[in-house]
Amino acid sequence: MHDIERLKSLIGEENVLENEDMSRHTTFRAGGCAALFLTPDIWKLSELLNELKCQGIEYYIVGNGSNLLVRDTGYKGAVICMGNRFDNCVVTKEENSVFAGAGCKLSKIASEAYKNSLTGLEFASGIPGTFGGAVTMNAGAYGGEMAQVIESVRVMDGDGKIFTLKNDELKLGYRHSIVMEENYIVLDGVLSLKKGDKDEIKAKMDDFSQRRREKQPLEYPSAGSTFKRPEGYFAGKLIMDAGLAGKTVGGAQVSEKHCGFVINKGGATATDILELMDIVTDTVYDKYEVKLEPEVKILG
Ligand SMILES: Cc1cc2nc3c(=O)[nH]c(=O)nc-3n(C[C@H](O)[C@H](O)[C@H](O)COP(=O)(O)OP(=O)(O)OC[C@H]3O[C@@H](n4cnc5c(N)ncnc54)[C@H](O)[C@@H]3O)c2cc1C
């Protein structure tokens, strides 16, 4: 049995939720419950990890849940949400740098950069994740990616030890980082940008967001691109060519607007989404012998 009272006294009663519906915390708006949903602050994080370890409770880190699907059967461990309590963002104009907490949304960081005439982060303004999630995934779009702008990141390991990793120590690759490999927790970091022209920065951000609105099914809940880009191909094109546009399982559908997105058309369960993902993977493999790998993280 979990000693919930112990967790509550450690991080505050209001920061410990039981059987929390994870569809409320994922942009897919689908999925099961987390046995525990914890929102510690940075000062209690290492003690919390220690307490979870003592109680034999596994944990999983979540930012904005924009690349995450929790199975309908739920997650038996503790979700630790690095959200609002980690959302500070400070621009140091003289150094062309931005300090961001793990829970700070990319849209907010990009907007702060813009206000201070700093260029380099325009690509990220429409990615609906947090800084921590974006570092972990090395998020990118329109030719930009986090690897191009990260100077350093402070992480915590499973034993509660904090250390700083420089850009070249983060092993940032296509939707990959050392954070993922080692299950580190991103606490915060520094982005290195360049002085730019405010109007040009704005124009770039507007252009990217217009392209997103035109090409992506933003009117439906999703986790963005469901599959990674297979080398030499585009997942969306393969899925479209395989005749899967509009393919539906329950409330889940392969978007007709952008076949790389599985969307929640209304009332989709995680099982619907996963079944549809399996159909897509199998069909594309049968037709083209290309193995699609999910980009979205599946928990539970
Ligand atoms: C409409 C839409 C459009 C999108 N467009 C793009 C795009 O253009 N480019 C792109 O790259 N992605 C895109 N995404 C996917 C998603 O927004 C990114 O992957 C984002 O970086 C995930 O951030 P998050 O905070 O939501 O992470 P979550 O979904 O909460 O978590 C994702 C992974 O990161 C880990 N994680 C999160 N925070 C931390 C932390 N502090 N420390 C350690 N690990 C952590 C989680 O454990 C999990 O493995 C899109 C998603 C949607 C819904």
Architecture of the largest domain, according to CATH? 2-Layer Sandwich
Shape: globular
Could you give the distance between the termini?
19 Å
Q: What count of helical segments does DSSP give?
A: 8
Structural class: alpha+beta
- Helix and strand run: HEEHEEEEEHEHEEEEHEEHHEEEHE
The strand count comes to 18
Instruction: Provide the domain count.
Output: 3
Query: What is the CA-based Rg, rounded?
Result: 20 Å
Question: Within the largest sheet, what's the order of strands?
Answer: 6-7-13-11-12
CATH level-3 fold name of the largest domain: Uridine Diphospho-n-acetylenolpyruvylglucosamine Reductase, domain 3
Short précis:
The protein has a five-stranded antiparallel β-sheet with strand order 6-7-13-11-12, covered by helices on one side. It has a four-stranded mixed β-sheet with strand order 1-2-5-3.
Structural summary, described in words:
By secondary structure, the chain is of the alpha+beta class. Helices cover 29% and strands 25% of the residues. It folds into 3 domains: 4-81, Uridine Diphospho-n-acetylenolpyruvylglucosamine Reductase, domain 2 (2-Layer Sandwich), CATH 3.30.43.10; 86-215, Uridine Diphospho-n-acetylenolpyruvylglucosamine Reductase, domain 3 (2-Layer Sandwich), CATH 3.30.465; 235-295, Uridine Diphospho-n-acetylenolpyruvylglucosamine Reductase, domain 1 (Alpha-Beta Complex), CATH 3.90.78.10. The strands form 6 sheets. A 5-stranded antiparallel β-sheet has the order 6-7-13-11-12, covered by helices on one side. It has a 4-stranded mixed β-sheet with strand order 1-2-5-3. Helix 1 runs antiparallel to helix 2 (42-55). The protein is globular and about 55 Å long. The mean pLDDT is 97. The structure holds flavin-adenine dinucleotide. Flavin-adenine dinucleotide (FAD) is lined by residues 27, 60-68, 82, 102, 127-130, 132-134, 136-137, 139-141, 179, 185-186, 218, 222-224, 297.
